[in-house]
Each structure stands twice: as structure tokens, then as C-alpha cells.
Amino acid sequence: xxxxxxxxxxxxxxxxxxxxxxxxxxxxxxxxxxxxxxxxxxxxxxxxxxxxxxxxxxxxxxxxxxxxxxxxxxxxxxxxxxxxxxxxxxxxxxxxxxxxxxxxxxxxxxxxxxxxxxxxxxxxxxxxxxxxxxxxxxxxxxxxxxxxxxxxxxxxxxxxxxxxxxxxxxxxxxxxxxxxxxxxxxxxxxxxxxxxxxxxxxxxxxxxxxxxxxxxxxxxxxxxxxxxxxxxx
Length: 233
Ligand SMILES: Cc1ncc(COP(=O)(O)O)c(C=O)c1O
What we know:
Blueprint: H1 9-18, E1 24-26, E2 44-48, E3 62-66, H2 69-82, H3 88-99, H4 101-121, E4 127-129, H5 139-145, E5 152-156, H6 160-169, E6 174-175, E7 185-187, H7 199-204, E8 211-215, H8 221-232
Parallel strand pairs: 1-2, 6-7
Antiparallel strand pairs: 2-3, 4-5, 5-8, 7-8
């Protein structure tokens, strides 16, 4: 996920359906305010509610959104048989978070773009990966299937040492895994979220040791840019 490669959902749904398969989309990075897989032809959409749906980094959970009766019946059976359901308090937190999803995502979109544009101009940054930038190889696809480009971005600072330095020097952003909360989180995927992926595989997918990921929150974007300026400086 840190390399932010997109899938053409409508086309993939066509191919899946032509072969009698279902298309299930993990829509966690976008949230329903930014991308609606079911409207694009997917059969199910799954979300880690831990992320944007709850939005405040204080609950862990997940949902499956299905439209076909047989899928819903099967999911109900699994839910009942396995018993892994969200407790009442977590359910309440997610429902409360969902009420502000649209306004939070609007700000994540604005801040994601502002931080991406700032980084793209920075002399110490070799590459920025953000679907909202024209330099993203699937920018045209992002424009057709997303409404805004979300708050997730990655950037390459050339060396592992430089990546470590940025992650350790930020003051406003927290160095942490997870994503999708109102507060900005920075992480080093190669040693954190993706440390268990073999090094050769990481390189194959473009996940270098010099890559830094940011889950851009909803703070004042000027504060985020000031923090990155001092951390990169
Ligand atoms: C795209 C995506 N889907 C699902 C998950 C799983 O989330 P959880 O840990 O809440 O099950 C993650 C976690 O980072 C994620 O990034």
C-alpha cells in the first residue's frame, strides 16, 4: 500500500464478472467519501474501520459492505458462527466517526494535495507518490474513479539514513503505524508496516528503504508543511 498503485475497479469488475468471479475491493485508503467501489461494479467493499471511518485512531474494527442477497446471507452466517463482532462501544465510536466522514475527508483531500505539492518541489525529495499529482502514473484513472485523492502519500528521500532522519525529526507528526486519523502519522514502511515483506519483494513493488509514508491528517496544512520543512532541512 505505500506505493499507492491503483486498480481500475470498473474494468476489473468486468473481467471478474466475465469469469463468474466476485470483485471485493479493500476501500480503506479512500473511504466511501472518496471512492465508491459498488457504484463502479464491485460486489463487496471492505474497510478497516480503524482508519478513516472511525477517524480518531481510538477503535479497531472492520466492515464488509455487500449488495447481493447470497453474499449477505453467507456473511451473516460467518459473522454468527465465528463470533468476531464489534463491541457496543466500538460500534458507537465508528457510527459517531462516520457522521463527520465527509468533512474530514474534504480536509484530508486538501491537506494531502498541499503536502504532496510541497514535497514535489522540495530539493531533498526524489519522488512523491500521490494519486492527485499529474506525475502519478495512474493520475488519469484516479480522476475518474475518486472524488478527491485522499490523505495518503509516500515520498522518497534517496537513502535509508535520510528517511530515518525525517521520521525522527518531525515534531507535529507522530511516528506511528496505522492511518486515516485526524492527526498526521508518519512511518517508514520498510522497517515498520512492511518489515515482514521479504526485501526482494519490497524492491520489486518499488517499496525502497528510502520511502517514507504519511497519513496526512486534518491539521492546518501550513503547520504540517512547516514541520516537514524543519525535518528535511
Ligand atoms: C488497506 C488496508 N486494509 C486493511 C487493513 C487492516 O486494518 P486492521 O488492522 O484494522 O484490521 C489495513 C491496515 O493497515 C490497510 O492498510
